[in-house]
Structure formats: structure tokens, C-alpha cells
Amino acid sequence: MSGKFKAVKISESVYWVGAIDWAVRYFHGYSTKNGTTYNAYLIMADKVTLIDGVKHGFENELLERVASVIDPEKIDYVVSNHSEPDHSGGLPEIIKAVRPEKVFASKNGVKALSAHFGDMGVTAVDDGGELSLGNRTLKFMETRMLHWPDSMFSYLVEEQVLFSQDAFGMHYASSERFDTEIPWQTLFENSLEYYANIITLYSSFVQGLFKKVKTSGLTFKVVAPDHGPVWSDMDNFAKVLGLYERWSSRKTSRKAVIVYDTMWHATEAMARHIEDGLNSTGVSVKVLPLQSASRSDVATEMLEATAVIVGTPTLNNNLFPSVADALTYIKGLKFQTPFAGAFGSFGWSGEGVPQIRAYLADMGCEIVGEVSAKYAPDEVVKVKCFELGVEIGRKIINTIN
Ligand code: FEO
Questions:
Q1: What is the CATH number of the domain that holds 367?
Q2: Is residue 276 part of a domain?
Q3: Which one in 20, 178, 193, 290 has a CA-CA gap of 20 to 30 Å to 227?
């Protein structure tokens, strides 16, 4: 036995040859508290084919896993389904080591890979096009803006394996390679977080993709994404598809999210009275203090929320940096949250709350109300906070049956 990394067989001729990143906690702003995997797949067809690469720094792990099955120099083709550097960053070194006959990507993938790494002689494949691997066939389907312009799926026809790049993935490092080895609740929570932080903005494209896949008539036995476990139980995968349908429909539930930071606990006290008011109406409330919740946590909780209420102290004539950070992040993801409120404490100038209001209006929310407190909230302000919670709670109930 060698001490080298091994491949894991996922279907008759396909092996997982990716890398596990237990350490990563920052993924372009997304707090990946469970780490991630960079999945790549080796198809042992007549034309030996590698699907996707890994992040730069993990090339040797991939090459060792390949070597546990076949000499890496025997790889004939490399297919890049997605050019984001967590999958393509290792490609220049992998291509140098493997010297494949050809590298394939979508038309936009060719441009993106060239922009990142210079001309690597990549061949463009057509949407709906096929590539013969001898005794196997790969079929390509462009999935533009899911979630980059270059993104595409590859489908191994004879074994009904879908290589879905980022779609249906999750940032979840584990020694388990298959969904069947992981509890459903873990799969659900990590899929939800991933969808909220990576896919939300492209929800209309998800809806379009469902139509495209249905029209294609493709059926799946294995779905192999570029992050997290391989879906080998199609009942589990059907549940994830159902979740993607629901999340991409932008339906919200009877839920409110309170997001705030606090300087000397005054804004925190206001948050708790708003929470109390919301609770009295029977809606579900999630409170996210930004000294312990990340911007990714906020995005995850926002996905199905019908209201967001944001609080900040005024610091140096501005809203708090952590609040500006969270607002910038959720504004970019374009959550369609119908109702909002703003609150916060100030000492002398009080610009924080109006700045929040401007952000929330920009996000298209109806601003139901706002409450400000000079220094600490007195009884009058506490009642106003409670009443704001009640008003928003009633609006949620009247909107969501
Ligand atoms: Fe996993 Fe869009 O990269």
C-alpha cells in the first residue's frame, strides 16, 4: 500500500479524483465554515478523459488520485465545465503534467480560460454537441450564468452520469464521497446555504435550466457536482431538484430576519423588542447579531424571508462597517424581500438609520417603519420597537397565506 491519495469509483467507468480542502473558510466572501471539496472526475473510456480540475495548490492531490487508477500521462482529453479558478486554477499545471491530446470547454469557457491563463489551445464544444470517447459519449449542455457565462454541464450518455459543475453542489468537506453516507439534514442545510450564497442571483436561469433539461429528456443515475458529495441516490437528488425549484421560484415564507450590530448594547436592546413584537404575531423570527453571524449566515436566512429589519448604531456619521458589509452582500444577491424596517441608536448625529433605509429601498423593499434612539432606548422607544415588530408581522401574515 502506498501513502498516496486514491481515486473513488462512482460508476462503471468514472472515478472521483478531486481534492478535499478542510481549511478554507473564506470563499470570495462566503464563510465556508465546513470547508469544501474541488471535485474532478476521471472517465476510463477508450479516450481517457478528465472532467474539471482543482484549485491551484491541489494539483498533486488530483494527480495522485488519477495515478491510483492510470498513469496521468494516459489522459487523452480534459473537459473544463467551469472556468472559475477553484476548478481551473490547477489546470495549467495539470495540463503540463498530463499533456492531453485535447482540452475542451464551452465557447465562453475558451475565452475565459484564455483570459485567465493565456492561450492553452482549448477547443470549443457546442451546446448540445457530443464528443466520442470511443466506447463512451459525452454530451454537452451550456448553462450560461449558472453561475458564470462559461458554465456548462457534461453528460456521460451510456452511464447516465451528469457532471453538473457548481449546480447541486455544496461547500462541505468530508471523507464521505456520496450523499447516501451523509444525513439528509446535513445535505439540506449545506445545499440551502450554497444556493443562497452562490445561486440566488441566477434563480431565473435555474428556472430556464429546468425547462431545458426536461426538453432534453435526459435521465440520471449519478449526478456529480464540483463541490461536496456525489448524488448517487436519485430519491435524494429529486428532493434537491424540488428544493431548487422552490428556491428559484423566489417564494417567501412567514419569516422575518433581524440583522444588527451594536456598540454599547442599545441597538441590541431595540432588536430584542422588535423580535418580541414579531413573535407576538406568530411569525418565525431569526435574529442575527453581526458580531457572531457572518454575511453568509444572513444570506442563508434571507432566502425565504418575507421581511428584513436591519439595525445599526451611528459611528462617525455612518452606519456600522459590519452592517454596511451585510447590506452590500445581500443587495448584490438581489433577494426579493417584500418588507423591511430600520432601527438603531445614535449619540448626536444619527445618520445610520437613514442610510439603512436608503439601502433597503434600493433593494426594492417596502419600508414599513423605522425607530431611532438617542443613546439608550427608553420605555417609549421600546414600545415603538415592539409596535414595529407587530406591524411587520401582520404584513407578513396578510401576504403569506
Ligand atoms: Fe466552484 Fe463557480 O466555482
A1: 3.40.50.360
A2: yes
A3: 290
Question: Is 3 within the bounds of a domain?
Answer: no
Q: Which residues contact 45 (CB under 8 A, 6 or more apart)?
A: 13, 133, 134, 135, 136
Residues 283 and 142 in one domain: no
For the segment 245-270, the average pLDDT, to the nearest whole number, is 97
C-alpha 86 to ligand 1 mean position (Å): 6
Give the residue numbers spanning the domain of 293.
255-393
- Rounded to the nearest 10 degrees, how much is the dihedral formed by the CA atoms of 263, 265, 269, 275? 60
Query: 372 is written with which cell numbers?
Result: 431611532
- Helix-, strand-, coil-residue percentages of the chain, each rounded to 5: 40, 25, 35
Nearest CA to ligand 1 atom 1: 166
The predicted pLDDT at position 214 comes to 81
Same domain, 146 and 272: no
Q: How confident is the model at residue 100 (pLDDT cuts 50, 70, 90)?
A: very high
What pLDDT, on the 0 to 100 scale, is given for residue 36? Answer: 98
State whether 159 and 302 are in the same domain: no
Confidence of residue 33 (pLDDT cuts 50, 70, 90): very high
- 317 C-alpha vs ligand 1 centroid, how far in Å? 38
